[in-house]
Design goal:
369 residues, alpha/beta, eight-stranded mixed beta sheet, four-stranded antiparallel beta sheet, 15 strands, binds pyridoxal-5'-phosphate
Length: 369
């Protein structure tokens, strides 16, 4: 049996912060400081134990309460949405547009107008930069400002991605990133909240550490959470941040590899930036297979590669199609549904070797011929 080629594994070179062996007490604030420098000191950062926790805290800071409505991109991983339900609020799902596969600004505005007509103003918008591709963030931000609705950017998959040179996660009121094992850099598990003010940062740290009031004894007047990142993982994060650019380069190289591989294949499109304003980290390389042209489906490719022990996976199943959210409303057409039907994620990890690439290209070429 050939060794497994996985969808999104990270390069093994895990560089630890030297301090880890001496004193890990300050690693968390040092890591936050490194991230703030990464964001050109224009944002405050709170290191947490997951990206999901970061979304939860962003929604609390945005003032989301029970029975509120929160607008969310439908085409995403379930973690973007679950925190809405943790708070007893309800999601309203929005379709994607075909250039970036992210939230469609037209469908967003249509939903807001209709909700306002019904006397129900949504309290926040969660936009996702899926697969590392920046959303049409300028247009989405303009809508959030026009209607005075808070904007949360889920940049869990988009660390290193930019729109017009500005980093994903720094456009809205809040951004979140993830350091989960499959992401572009990893602390094995972890995440961070990106916010604008010291006050928001302090509030997030307070909520993430069981909401302890100032007193000699343990005093609590609010509901808190155990969401803080550990110092050891923060120390790993500091080392990982140093290899971020390398990892982005390697992932973009994989994307280029697939562009070359499929360049003469009619009916197979490699997902790429539609304009120079967009710089994707190409966290995962994805293709769309139009079976009316190719004569075979994405599942035919998936099964063939699986026989070679090469992992691929259909694109995210939209949230408005998920049984757990079957009562939620949805605005849009069938862009995300179509992507789910026809799209496939290909092995994109930063640790893939030339040998792995040869295996992938041999398997795909033999399938295509
Ligand atoms: C990974 C991911 C998250 C959640 O991050 P965790 O650190 O795993 O909690 C949220 N949104 C998207 C789009 C993700 O891919």
């Amino acid at each position: 049996m050939k060794a497994r080629i996985a969808l999104s594994s990270s390069r093994a070179s895990l560089k630890l912060d030297k301090e880890i062996f001496l004193n890990t007490n300050n690693s968390i604030s040092n890591f936050e400081n490194d991230l703030e420098v990464y964001y050109n000191n224009k944002r405050k950062v709170v290191a947490l134990n997951s990206g999901t926790a970061a979304i939860h805290l962003a929604l609390i800071l945005a003032g989301i309460e029970k029975n509120d409505l929160v607008i969310c991109q439908s085409f995403t991983f379930v973690a973007s949405v679950n925190p809405i339900l943790y708070l007893g609020a309800s999601p309203v799902f929005i379709d994607s547009e075909k250039d970036t596969w992210n939230m469609c600004p037209l469908a967003l505005e249509e939903s807001i107008k209709e909700l306002l007509l019904n006397g129900k103003k949504p309290k926040a918008i969660i936009v996702v930069h899926l697969y590392g591709m920046p959303a049409k963030i300028e247009e989405l931000l303009a809508i959030s400002l026009k209607y005075d609705i808070k904007l949360v950017e889920d940049a869990a998959e988009a660390l290193g991605a930019t729109y017009k040179g500005q980093k994903c996660g720094t456009f809205g009121d809040f951004g979140i990133i993830s350091f989960n094992g499959n992401k572009i850099i990893s602390t094995s598990g972890g995440g961070a909240l990106v916010c604008k003010t010291k006050k928001e940062k302090n509030k997030a740290i307070f909520l993430a550490t069981q909401a302890r009031d100032e007193a000699a004894h343990y005093q609590h007047s609010q509901l808190g959470y155990n969401y803080r990142m550990s110092n050891i993982l923060a120390s790993i994060g500091r080392g990982q941040l140093e290899v971020l650019d390398d990892h982005v380069r390697l992932r973009r190289d994989m994307h280029h590899f697939y562009q070359e591989l499929f360049k003469n294949s009619k009916g197979i499109t490699v997902f790429t930036e539609h304009s120079k304003d967009y710089f994707s980290n190409h966290w995962l390389s994805c293709i769309v297979v139009d079976d009316s042209i190719t004569g075979f489906t994405r599942d035919d490719i998936r099964i063939k590669l699986s026989e070679e022990n090469i992992e691929t996976r259909p694109l995210w199943k939209p949230m408005h199609m998920q049984p757990v959210f079957n009562h939620a409303s949805y605005y849009g057409n069938n862009i995300a549904e179509n992507l789910f039907k026809k799209g496939l994620c290909l092995p994109s990890g930063s640790n893939l070797t030339e040998k792995d690439k040869n295996r992938i290209s041999t398997a795909i070429k033999s399938f295509l011929s």
